């Protein structure tokens, strides 16, 4: 996870703001995004520092919301040592014990893309990632850098889920998970299981946190994040305990 390349201090980096655009999560609202200069390489040291300030990665870009008058997007993370799975989560771990996990570099694989294509068309046909394409997938989830990894979940050799993660010096950032939309897998709750398995991976590697990206109180699609307790949120530059609702 380390890099020998010199890292510029965060204060010397350049950032850009997008023009206001429709918010992907809250209707009738506009969003503005703060991006690290695309000419800057998102090396390990820079990424580690910016992730503590609420930045996320999408492809080669590091970003965070920067919306005037709106603070709905809250960065959240799970303190690994304090996490205790609920009864339901323990059942899911047992239910998915027959899955085999493989860790891969975040490179393009046609098998991965075919699963992603079916997932987006089935589960997110009303979202801004529809329709999926090879170019969109490559831009979003592939990156030739040691910290960018893909977790494969297989059942008797069949690919059933893929999680994109980043290995940080202070945790694992959960980027995105897609899975087989076949109703036969619904009881496995593969999205939740992927987070549970990422927590175990962080514990095995002595990494203290799993970053879940942004949580929006008003967005029902993000309610699942509250099921992982305890949860911490970023308040300015300080991470604080989020009280369960």
TrEMBL record:
Keywords: Acyltransferase, Cytoplasm, Transferase. Its EC number is 2.3.2.29. GO terms for molecular function: arginyl-tRNA--protein transferase activity. The keyword Acyltransferase applies. It comes from the Bacteria. Residues 111-235 form the N-end rule aminoacyl transferase C-terminal domain. It is found in: Cytoplasm. It catalyses: N-terminal L-glutamyl-[protein] + L-leucyl-tRNA(Leu) = N-terminal L-leucyl-L-glutamyl-[protein] + tRNA(Leu) + H(+); N-terminal L-aspartyl-[protein] + L-leucyl-tRNA(Leu) = N-terminal L-leucyl-L-aspartyl-[protein] + tRNA(Leu) + H(+). PANTHER family: ARGININE-TRNA-PROTEIN TRANSFERASE 1, ARGINYL-TRNA--PROTEIN TRANSFERASE 1. Functions in the N-end rule pathway of protein degradation where it conjugates Leu from its aminoacyl-tRNA to the N-termini of proteins containing an N-terminal aspartate or glutamate. Belongs to the R-transferase family. Bpt subfamily. NCBIfam families: PRK01305.1-1 (NF002341), PRK01305.1-3 (NF002342), PRK01305.2-3 (NF002346). This is Aspartate/glutamate leucyltransferase. It comes from Halomonas salifodinae.
